[in-house]
Amino acid sequence: MNKAQTEITIPHLFRCPISLDLLEDPVTLTTGQTYDRSSIEKWISAGNFTCPVTMQKLHDLSFVPNHTLRHLIDQWLQLGAQFEPSSNNSATIDYLASLKHTLESHDSTLETKLKSLEKISVLSDEYCSFRKSCFQQLSFLPLLLELVFGLSDSQLSENHMEFVEIALSCILKLLPIVNLEPLNIIKDESKLERFIFLFEKGTSSIKTSLCLVIDHSTATAQTEEVCEVLGNSQKLVHEIVQVVFNKNYDKVSEAAIKALSALCSLESNKESLVKGGAINGIITYISRCENRQKNLAPLAMATMKKLLVLESGKEALVNHVNGIETLVKMVFKVCNQECSESAVEILSIVCSDFGSAREVAIGAGVLSQLLFLLQSQCGTKTKTKARMLLKLLRSKWNEESMQL
Fold first, then answer.
1. Do the beta carbons of residue 283 and residue 322 sit within 8 Å?
2. Which of 114, 143, 223, 363 is the most exposed place for a label (fewest CB within 10 A)?
3. Dihedral sign computed on CA atoms, order 64, 253, 296, 255
4. Which positions, given as ranges, span the membrane (predicted)?
5. For strand 63-65 and strand 26-29, is the pairing parallel, antiparallel, or unpaired?
6. Residues 76, 124 contacting (CB under 8 angstroms)
7. Burial (CB count within 10 angstroms: exposed 0-12, middle 13-18, buried 19+), residue 158
């Protein structure tokens, strides 16, 4: 790297996690993490057989070149010098305007538009307040949303799906830095249909991005109606739940949990979520990540708790073949007190109303789990709730015994 290049602030994604230098020959491990080839080869040759970032054991030491990232870095190196904060602001606006024109033009080929999107993706990665204002002033978000959700069925070829992936990536980078009002475009019936279609037919990357768009829809009162429209679409809710059921514990299932949590923030969406199988999806997610320390189980359980204000939500939990047992297993989680507290709260809700839930919980060992929890170093709040659940189970048990 020459002196001019080193003076440019390197985006985080373009740095090797080992050397912290610009990736020159990026390669990706089976864990999905990318490193510079020379750095990871030295790491492995030194007898380290784990992924440096995730610390997962590497059963397969092979890696593949990350051509997409290599291309983006090349683009960034070509553009970086002309977009330093000290550069002429007018030139920056002109360049971004030219990229926008390429995207808008009916004469531009798909390949040309893809290249423009890649450049926009690189430029939106760098934290320059002036550039953020440029994206806002040039209305990039409305344009990108129209390009993604305005596509017709005939346009959705494999290459167009690549276009959608990159465009959604750009949208997600812009959402935290621009006005979110343009998201209201999704309220339009045809745009909503396209949103659902992309969720049904899209890649895991597209599904993940769409879930995160939903998550952003609750960030401001301006987009509350969008959240309501999305949450009341039974078809969409069903698709999100199917993503949660994904057997692979990956980013897409986590994004789906975030989407369900976001939709659950509106009371008007809760019935739709229950009907769409959200409770079943959450139980499946929790049971799958039971032994993982880093997961969204606390968020998933908080979402479930919100849905239990509905009688249908309680019934969905009680009627699930593994619902109560899954929650009982979460009661004593030393590594995650938040999960323990939520599990105790949820069990208190359903055990108070359903004798069958009490019977299953006791059979699954909830009493010993609660006693272990009370003897642990968990917080006072959690212990208080655990005592209340024990008291509830004991009193209900006595009542039922007397009736017999």
1. yes
2. 363
3. positive
4. none
5. antiparallel
6. no
7. exposed
Half-sphere exposure of 372 (CA within 13 A, CB side): 15
Q: What domains can you pick out in the chain, each with its CATH number?
A: 3-65 (3.30.40.10), 89-331 (1.25.10.10), 332-404 (no CATH)
Q: What secondary structure does DSSP assign to 88-156, as a single string?
A: -HHHHHHHHHHHHHHHH-TTS-HHHHHHHHHHHHHHHHS--HHHHHHHHHTTHHHHHHHHHHT--GGG-
Cα–Cα dist 257/298, whole Å? 10
8 A C-beta contact, residue 76 and residue 68: no
Q: Which two tokens stand for residue 373?
A: 């929890």
Give the integer Cα–Cα distance in Å for 138 and 102: 13
What is d(CA 300, CA 262) in angstroms, rounded to the nearest whole number?
11
| Beta partners for residue 27, in sequence order | 35, 65
Rounded-to-integer distance, Cα 69 and Cα 31, Å: 16
Tell me the three state secondary structure of residue 214: helix
Buried b (16+ CB within 10 A) or exposed e, 303-327: bbbbbbebeebbbbbbebeebbbbb
Instruction: List helix spans (H) across 289-379.
Output: 297-307, 311-319, 323-331, 337-353, 355-363, 366-375
Residue 189 pLDDT: 92
Strand order in the sheet with 63-65: 34-36, 26-29, 63-65
Residue 27 backbone dihedrals phi, psi, to 5 degrees: -130, 150
Q: What is the C-alpha separation between 59 and 50, in angstroms, rounded?
A: 9
Q: How far apart are CA 364 and CA 360, in angstroms?
A: 6
What is the C-alpha R_g of the chain? 25
Tokens 């969406």, located at residue: 269
Residue type, 102: T
Mean pLDDT for back-to-back runs of 10 residues, the chain (404 residues): 49 82 88 88 89 82 84 70 48 80 89 89 66 78 92 66 91 87 92 93 92 91 92 95 80 93 95 96 87 77 96 96 94 78 94 92 92 87 90 73 48
